[in-house]
Amino acid sequence: MNSKDRISLVHGFGGKETYELLDRIIFSKLPLNLKRVEGGVGLEVLDDGAVIKFGDKNVVITLDSYTIKPVIFPGGSIGTLAVSGTVNDLVVMGAQPIAFADSVVVEEGFDVGLLNKVVDDMLKLLMELRIPLIGGDFKVMPKGSLDGMVITSVGIGVARNPIIDINITPGDRIIVTDPIASHGAVILAAQLGMLDKLEGIRSDVKPLIGILPVIDKYSDYIHAARDPTRGGLAAILNEWARQTNVTIVIEREKIPIEDNVRDFLEAMGIDPLTMASEGVAVIAVADTYADDIAKDLRSRGFRASVVGYVEKPRNEFLRGKVVAITEIGGRVVVEARGYNLPRIC
Amino acid sequence: MNSKDRISLVHGFGGKETYELLDRIIFSKLPLNLKRVEGGVGLEVLDDGAVIKFGDKNVVITLDSYTIKPVIFPGGSIGTLAVSGTVNDLVVMGAQPIAFADSVVVEEGFDVGLLNKVVDDMLKLLMELRIPLIGGDFKVMPKGSLDGMVITSVGIGVARNPIIDINITPGDRIIVTDPIASHGAVILAAQLGMLDKLEGIRSDVKPLIGILPVIDKYSDYIHAARDPTRGGLAAILNEWARQTNVTIVIEREKIPIEDNVRDFLEAMGIDPLTMASEGVAVIAVADTYADDIAKDLRSRGFRASVVGYVEKPRNEFLRGKVVAITEIGGRVVVEARGYNLPRIC
Fold first, then answer.
1. A139 and B CB contact within 8 Å
2. Alpha-carbon distance B221 to nearest alpha carbon in chain A (angstroms)
3. Which of A166, B44, B92, B126 is the 20 to 30 Å CA partner of B31?
């Protein structure tokens, strides 16, 4: 390791650079039996959570740190985000959340009223969802050592049939549950002082608890599920395509997105496929049930859409790649890499 | 809530002020059924971890953030600390650690070699203890927004008979497993550039896995166990005394402490009882087995000592108080409050 190597922002964007760094300093050093609890799922699969079997129960555990700036934004706060993000990681594993814990780190001088507001957002969601807050930690760093706050949440859930993202096969179709990229667009606009350009748009941050009955009902036909946060849809689909050696084809015009969000991002030269959502799931399902699942989701208030499909690579170049069919019918490779924002989640 | 209230360092010291803040903004707002999973233990008891029952298994979960500065110190690093602190929280709950996850937040520009060293310290301990690393998160904050790094660890364990610290009764005796305060003294000296005053002393940071067989063997007679980190022995003993309305009496001359640590802290005017240890447990045990337990611990290489006992308050003033018998036989009340160091853990 070159001693002059420095961490750059790109290491934190959740894409290829993050993977390569963590693989070099962590994953490659651990044998398989120290990456998971026997009989469960852990670091050997880079999914949203890990699974430990206790008797006949599949217990799912997820851990995430939130560093978003600003702490309060249109549609929520770091508190809303911490609960939603953690619940969503459980939901896309097919798990019912049963407990939550959080560790809060703030700087000396942090406004207690603001802390209280953030905590209230967190508690309000937990109470609505009836998820107990069973523990946590609280630390204060001296003035000048932390800009804002860091919240780290752990979620515990139980899955009848955990969704491990390794079963994608040609023929599967891809469903997106709601309009994408609103969260990313709002945070970008807030950081740039351009919120006036996004009138009426709020972050999509929300707990995806409402999709659980659908996941449960169709669990045998759901081959993968994720929430496209850092790196957006482009990152998740590329990860799926690469891991399973398929081509994933996306029809751009079918991807749900708010007009204002599309216009704002277009004006900024940013592909919405690379922008984070915090209340949206992307699901790969068996062809036969794709329309039923989308319909079921829509009947529950989601603006779900079948946006693409999985195919056998037509040639070597397309193996592990994501291809978008553009509005005028062209086929274009979609890279995982795009515009990245620090402190988006 | 006064909007001009600001977080101060004292809110982060784990004592009365931390409790009062968290009680005001969190604990008091949650009904009991949202503080724990039914049948388990959660926020209603402020212990080192929470308990969830899965079938006949008592699963213990603990979550802590580490912000220590410096990141590397004599005896370990923030990586050693994150694993040790988390393992110790499980051990003092009577739980065998079975899985670990960690979330790392660093600043842009952080030295990759240093990150690698910290991660290696973490992995080395996990491998020694054969605890799988099952998941985590990695975030990068822009330059200037975080001094150093924050690691948040979650530990999962299984306890045959979880030790919940509510059974302390008059007659119990107090055991300390090893010399106290070395961690606090080393970090204080490092922060002040005075490490030359502590020749030969290293932080006591270590996983307390070696005490588990003793805890297991005597579990029916162990009424409480904690690791005295932030706030030291004084904080834990005061918490126990207050919660159970007893008086805890400590004989100062029986408390194990390295000579150099005692001399250094004395010169600084700091009571070692208020200094953090990161590889020491304090245990309240039934009188009958106290000497056997201490002996068993010593046979396993610990420098354990019976340092005090629990008594019925002799008067109203002494209810919920900790009293030290000094080297010259006097009785003095020991407050939870003492010298506090930011970023000690």
1. yes
2. 26
3. B92
Is A337 a member of any domain? no
CATH number of residue B155's parent domain = 3.30.1330.10
Q: What is the domain-level CATH number for residue B283?
A: 3.90.650.10
B contact test, residue of A3, A5, A7, A124 with most B CBs within 10 A: A7
Cβ contacts of B4 within 8 Å, gap of 6 or more: none
B3: pLDDT strictly greater than 50: no
CA A13 to the chain's CA centroid: 12
* Nearest residue to B102 (alpha-carbon basis) of B83, B128, B130, B127: B83
Nearest Cα of chain A lies from the Cα of B47 at a distance, in angstroms, of 9
Across the strands, what pairs with B72?
B77
Same domain? For B146 and B247 the reply is: no
Instruction: Quote the pTM value.
Output: 0.95
Question: Of A9, A134, A148, which has the smallest distance from its Cβ to B50's Cβ?
Answer: A134
Q: Residues in chain A with pLDDT < 70?
A: 1-4
Q: What is the DSSP string of A176-239?
A: E-S--SHHHHHHHHHHHT-GGGGTT--------GGGHHHHHHTGGGEEEEE---TTHHHHHHHH
Q: Is A5 helix (H, G, I), strand (E, B) or coil?
A: coil
pLDDT digits (tens, 9 = 90+) for A143-154: 999 999 999 999
- Indicate if B138 and B247 belong to the same structural domain: no
Is A20 near chain B, with CB under 8 Å? no
Task: Look at A112 and B152 and tell me if their CB atoms are within 8 Å.
Answer: no
Contact B43 A133 (CB under 8 A): yes
* pLDDT for res A79: 98
Higher pLDDT, B166 or A20: A20
**Is A190 found in the same domain as A143?**
no
Residue B336 confidence (pLDDT) = 85
The one-letter code for the residue type at A169 is: T
B123 at interface of A, judged by CB pairs closer than 8 A: yes
Pairs of CB atoms within 8 A across A/B = 286
Q: What is the pLDDT of residues A85-118, one digit of tens each?
A: 999 999 999 999 999 999 999 999 999 999 999 9
Interchain CB distance below 8 Å, B111 and A25: no
Looking at chain B from residue 38 to 97, which residues have their Cβ under 8 Å from any Cβ of chain A? 40, 42-43, 49-50, 52, 54-57, 59, 61-65, 67
